[in-house]
Amino acid sequence: MTAATTPDGGGPLSGVRVVELAGIGPGPFAAMLLADLGADVVRVDRPGGPGLGVAPEYDVTNRNKRSVVVDLKADGGPARVLDLASRADILIEGYRPGVAERLGVGPEACHAVNPRLVYGRMTGWGQQGPLAHRAGHDIAYIALTGTLGMIGEPDRPPAVPANLVGDYAGGSLYLVVGVLAALHHARAGGGGQVVDAAIVDGAAHLTAMIHGMVAAGGWQDRRGANLLDGGCPYYGTYETADGGHMAVGALEQQFYEEFLDLIGLKDFAPARKDWTRWGELREAVAARFRTRTRDEWTAVFEGSDACVAPVLSLREAPHHPHLAARGTFTDHGGITQPAPAPRFSATPTTVRSGPAQPGADTAAVARDWQIPALLAEDA
User: Fold this and answer.
1) Which alpha helices (DSSP H) does the chain contain, by range?
2) For the chain, give me the number of helices (H) and strands (E)?
3) Could you report how far apart the first and last alpha carbons of the chain are, in Å?
4) 320: annotated active-site residue
5) 3-state SS assignment for residue 77
6) pLDDT above 90: percentage of residues in the chain
7) Could you give the CA distance from residue 294 to residue 287 in angstroms, rounded to a whole number?
8) What is the reported pLDDT for 51?
9) Given this model, what pLDDT does residue 222 score?
10) Residue 288 burial (CB < 10 Å; 0-12/13-18/19+)?
11) Residues near 47 by Cβ (< 8 Å), separated by ≥ 6?
């Protein structure tokens, strides 16, 4: 697997230069998304690597990027990063508040060499607040926002949604939206600025609709008691005869009726809006699903609008006919991985290169960004 050989990604962000100060979790994923969209992302790796990560050759979040290694604690380290910042449109860092400043590459230092720079800061707790300087991980951030407490069965501890809700949905995606909005502002003549992307803010923001439903009396503040959290018998998952599972999302009346018809429970049509019968309906649906295998039920609902789908594993998903037809997953360098998303009609995106290997692109970046000092020994 080789790193990118050209800064032109061909996507809608072609020509945009991004500096990523290496970290773990949401920062690298955000930078990957920018790289997938065509930006020339230069990852500044630290000697020895960031820690708590997969082997570099398998770290898909570093695809479509280029890497240089800079020791920010060495005499010439901060100057190398400032050289990069002076030629960049966006910089992303994920240190605790104040660390970038102590290393000499904080917003003030970077804006001194590039007033139009968008400086993106990715943290869990944010730049201010009582917990700002505390350590944390995805699970703690979503716990405090009420998001984690919504997920799971009512009589069991909250279910852990990997790190998708906090790190990536509440963190990376909000950082990307923020830096692109700030880039638009800068290119319209407004100058650079700092984007404070905190996972607690993003994860809380994701629950906007739910808070409205709570205020309106349409959502109970407890797990497994509502329309979209597994409390509703026609919006949830059920085990099949072979230990597989089917996902049911038959919310609307017409989909609900089709679901009942195909599963053989038409007598339960009146139970849709009768909460007192939801328990009875759930037991009946569960019993029916246990009579056939996952593949057999998949065939039953094939071609219908009952909004029922098999629950696939990560290894199974790329082979689903619909995802295969769309090319939702792709193979690159021997690694099956999600293809870039979303899609663009005029500026298509692609996986151009495998995970950037630490320091492998120093010479190319020094040439393309016209920073010969990157090749100095004290960097």
Assistant:
1) 26-36, 77-86, 99-103, 107-113, 138-144, 173-185, 199-205, 208-215, 253-263, 278-289, 294-301, 321-326, 362-368
2) 13, 11
3) 25
4) no
5) helix
6) 94
7) 14
8) 63
9) 95
10) middle
11) 69, 71
Copy the structure tokens of residue 29. Answer: 């994923």
Q: Residue 48 is inside which H or E element, if any?
A: none
- Among the listed residues 269, 253, 18, 249, the one whose alpha carbon sits nearest the alpha carbon of residue 120: 18
**Residue 358: its pLDDT value, please?**
94
Answer whether residue 355 shows pLDDT above 60: yes
Instruction: Indicate if 229 belongs to the active site.
Output: no
CA distance 167 to 155: 27
C-beta separation of 98 from 128 below 8 A: no
pLDDT in tens, 311-333: 999 999 999 999 999 999 999 99
Q: Which residues contact 344 (CB under 8 A, 6 or more apart)?
A: 11, 12
Catalytic-labelled residue, pool 71, 111, 137, 320:
137
Q: State how far the Cα of 23 lies from the Cα of 46, in Å rounded to an integer.
A: 9
pLDDT, tens only, 69-125: 999 999 999 999 999 999 999 999 999 999 999 999 999 999 999 999 999 999 999
Query: Given 36, 59, 83, 167, which residue is catalytic?
Result: 167
Whether the CB-CB separation of 293 and 240 falls below 8 Å is answered with: yes
Whether 379 and 71 have beta carbons less than 8 Å apart is answered as yes
